[in-house]
What does this fold into?
Amino acid sequence: MRSLMTKVKRLKGMPLHKAVRKIAGKAAQETKFVYRNYRIRYAPIQLNPLLFHGFRSSSRFLFDPQDQGQINAFLKEAQLDQSIIEDAERICSHRFNLLGSGETQLGRSLPWHEDFKTNFRWEPKFYKYIKIVDLENAADVKVPWELSRCQHFFTLGKAYWLTGDEKYAREFQAQVDDWLQHNPVEMSVNWACTMDVAIRAVNWISAVYFFRESPSLEAAFWDRFHTSLYLHGQFIMNNLENTGEHTGNHYLSNLAGLIGLGLYFGDFKIDAKTSDGNDPAAWLAYGLQEMEREMFVQVNEDGSNYEASTSYHRLVAELFLVSTIWCERNGISFSEAYMERLEKMHVFMMQMMKPDGLTPIIGDADDGRYLIVSNYGSWVRNDFRHLLAVAGEFFDRDDFRAACVVASEDALWLAGKFVDASLAQEPVNALGSVAYPDGGYYVLRNSRAYCLIRCGELSFHGQGAHSHNDQLSFELQIDGVDLIVDPGSYVYSADYRMRNQFRSTAMHSTVQAGGFEQNEFEEKNLFKMREETFALCEKFSQDQFIGSHKGFVHKCGVIHKREVILRECELEINDWFMNEGIGSVKSTEMYASFILGPIVAATQDNQCIAFHYRGARAECWIEDVASVQIQDSWLSSQYGVCTSSQYIRAKSNTMRLRTFIRWV
It folds into this structure.
C-alpha cells in the first residue's frame, strides 16, 4: 500500500481523468501482485520435466556443431586456444571479474543473489517485492544480474570443444542446477529484470550446441534445463519492458530473447492449461513483429541510436544483428528498409571509430553485451570491432572487414565465416569528416587528428535517461593518443553521488556558465534529465564545426556557442556566450573544462599548458582567461572502474574564450 501511495503523490498536476485511470491501474496491479505472490508461495510455478523428455531443437543456431573440427583448427591456428582454456579454467574455479570487481574467488557455490563486491545479499522472494535499488547503500544489483546472465557458458563450451574434457560439461551442469535450485521462477532478484532473463535464456541456448552430445549429461538434466528455458519464455512474454514513456535496449533484449526461444522451441507446444497462456509460436511471432517496428523507433534515420550513448548503440546493434542472422539461418527475413537501417548502424560505428580502433564512450555505459563469444575475461569495453567483423561477413563489406582485423573469432561464431581483412580495399584512416545530426555526433578528421564533437538531442527524444551534460564537448586524438576524452560513467545506483559527478557539465570538455548544469537533474533520479539544451549544429564542413545550445538561457540568460576548427597541426576552439535577451544576464563567469586522456601529463607555464605523452608534446593556449588550473579528476574505462586523471579548468569573466591546442 505504501508503494501505491508513493505513486499517487507523483500524479500531482496530472489531469483528473488520467490520474484516476492511472490510480485504478496501479491498484489493480498491486492486487494482482498480492495474489501472484500468495499463489507462488503455496504452488510454485513449474512444469513437468517429462513434457520435454527427448526434446531436441530442429532449428539452426548461429554456428553449426558439424563445423567443430574446422572451428577448432581455426582457433588453434590463430593461437586463441590457450587463452580460451585459461578463461575456462578460471570459470571452473569460480574466479570472476565482473563490473570492476577485479578477479575474485566466489566460492564453491556461486553467489547468485549477492553483490559480492559489497557482500550485500537480496533475499529470495517474489520478484515484485524485492527492493532492487537502495541509494543509501553501495550494493549494485547489476552484479548478481551480470553473473546470472551466464555469458561465461560460451567460453566453457569452447574449451570443451577444444579439449574434449568432460569437466567443462560437468561444470556447466553444476552451475545450471545450482542456479535452478536457488532461483525458482519469479522468486529471486534474478527475475526482477526481464532483460536479464532474456539474455540468460539465449546464453543457455548457446551452451546446448556445445554440450548436447556430452556423455556426462543425462537426459534428466536436459529435461530440467528445457523446462526452465520454456518458463523463461513465458516469463518474458508476461513481463515485457514496454510500459514506460519510451522503449529502449531493455525491451529490445526482451524481443531478442523471445525470437531466440521461439526459434529454439519451434513448433514444440505443451498443453495450454499448463503453458500460462503463451507458447513458442506466439513468442516468435510477437518478437519478429516488434523487432521490425523497434528498428524504426530506436534507430535514427542516419543509423545512430536514440539513447544518445555510443555504448548502448553497440548493445542495440548487437541485439538486432545477432537476431537477424539467427532468423536468416532459419529462413526468416526482415524488410528491406529494416536491413538498410541495420547496415547504417554499423556504418555509424565504423565512422565513429578512432584511428586506434577504439570508440569514444559518449553518454552512459554499463558494459552490456548479448553474447560474449570471444575474450570473455578481457574484452575491451570501447572496442566495437567485434561487431564490425560480424557485419562485414553478413553484409559482405570490405570496409567493415578492414576496420576489424583483430576480431575474426566473432565473425566465425556468429556469421559462420571470416574473410582475411588484408583483402579489403580501404583502411579506416581513409575516412573523412562526417556528421550524424540525428544522433548528435560530428567528427572532424585529418591525417593525424580525430576530433568528435557532441551536439544533439538527449536520449529518448529529450528524456535523457542515458545522457550526460556533454553538449558541445569533444574528444581529441592525435597520432593514436587520446589527449582530450570523455570521462565515462563509472557506476549507476551503487554510488549516486559519483553517478551525478560523471554526468555533470564540469566533468566534460565543454563550457559551464557559473555553477549551472546544462540540463538540470534530480540528485536521486538517476535516469532522467529533461531536455533544456536543444543543441543545434549551425555549420559543419571538412574542417569546421559551429554549434550552440540553450541550456543556460533560463538560468543566466545566455546561449553557449562553440566553433571548432581543425587544421594540419592545430585545433582552434572559440567559445562565447550570447545574450538571449530574456531578462538580464545574471552571470558572465565562464568555466571551460578539458578532460585529459589517461596517459597525458600536464604542466603549466603561465597561460600555456603542455601535454606530455609517449615522448611527444602538445601545447594548449587559452586566451581571455582570469585563471587556468590543472586539477585532479577521474576517468572510467569500464563500469565499476575509476582511475585518477587530470583536467584543465579555465575561468573567464568575459563572454568569450579562445583555445588553441597545437602539436608537432
In short: Residues 535 and 549 are 4 Å apart (CA to CA).
